[in-house]
Amino acid sequence: MGSSQRYDADQPPVDPSTRAVHVRGPELAGLRPLSLPIFQTSSFAFSDSADLADALSRPDGSFVYSRYGNPTIRALEQAVADLEGGTAAVATASGMGAISSVLLSRLRSGDHVVVQSALYGGTVSILRDLAERFGVEVSSFSGDPGELTGAIRPNTRLLYLETIANPTTAVNDLPALAAIGREAGLTVVVDNTFASPMLCRPLEHGAHIVLHSSTKFLGGHSDVIGGVVVFAEDEHYRAAWHQVVDYGASADPFAAWLTARGLQTLPLRQAKQCENARVLAERLQAHPAVSAVRWPGLPSHPDHEVAAKLLSGFGSLMTFDIAAGHEAAVAFLERVRLAALAPSLGGVETVVLQPSSSTHRQLDEAGLRAAGITEGTIRMSVGIEHADDLWADLAQALG
């Protein structure tokens, strides 16, 4: 006989894999829809002008205009905030909307930012723009705690990290770095896209702000563009909400609904993807055409021990270097049949690309070297297909 115990919103289940399933929308006439409704409306009508004015002034007020807030969007925000262990979240129109909103809300002209050297190209691009247009200074460090301490200046305001670096899969000692940042009074921001809350929750390790491109693992089906920012502190939340609203980076209700729908299967998808990644990483490491494989689950990965302590799984992103270089890498990409040559990642299908000509095209040769990217580097996001079918495709493409 099944248990009669019902889900209690005031005492949610502890395990994230259970919480991900229970994306809760608003009650309607005293009943809770089992599936999250889409509130596809631009505005909400009021009978009191004072209530309308109040709703426009704060992120936790009544719904008034969907750029400011919407029931479907808020359900997604609350679900991701719960998974990450945050106090609140703001959903955005894209991952870059999440990144830019955080940086613009936390930085002023003359401020200094410290970032890890292996970083998503889009983040590098917006930091470069902030430096050129507004005089924001940017320094990078390798991930060594001592190097971080030396990079902090009197005008340093923000430390920006990635849980699993794009695309090199470097995994830094997040608790140690966050502790140094907090001690120096910095806002610690972590892009958790590659790990998701299933593998790591950076707020538990000292971060102030966590962000995601929800286009990736949270949505998980390559059918939506979005971002989410989660906050440990109300002050940061309100500042970012104003930034999102004023600059028009707000999420769309239908996109939020798609993301919330994907979120419910995240635990299952990511477990399968991580297992497939293990199989492929081990086989690629033994292939004569491959000179290096970078996946945190391999004992040969330089950050394997850190990853084993920090992550509950090693992720499904990896890079590998084709020994013969650029032309051989291009030929590989043209020969794959099951894996798709496509940007983005984190979907149910396996995709591959060459970072030097795509995701990190903004970097010059020196920047690529600093980020650990060669002309023969392939980035692969492993999907949920059968591992043997994926290997057969990769093996024939490698020759």
Automatic annotation (TrEMBL):
Keyword flag Nucleotide-binding: no
Identify the domain of life: Bacteria
Annotated stretches, region: Disordered? 1-20
Keywords, sorted A to Z: Pyridoxal phosphate
Q: Which Gene3D superfamilies match?
A: Aspartate Aminotransferase, domain 1, Type I PLP-dependent aspartate aminotransferase-like (Major domain)
Give the cofactors, semicolon-separated: pyridoxal 5'-phosphate
Return the similarity comment. Answer: Belongs to the trans-sulfuration enzymes family.
Name of the protein: Trans-sulfuration enzyme family protein
| High-level lineage | Bacteria, Bacillati, Actinomycetota, Actinomycetes, Pseudonocardiales
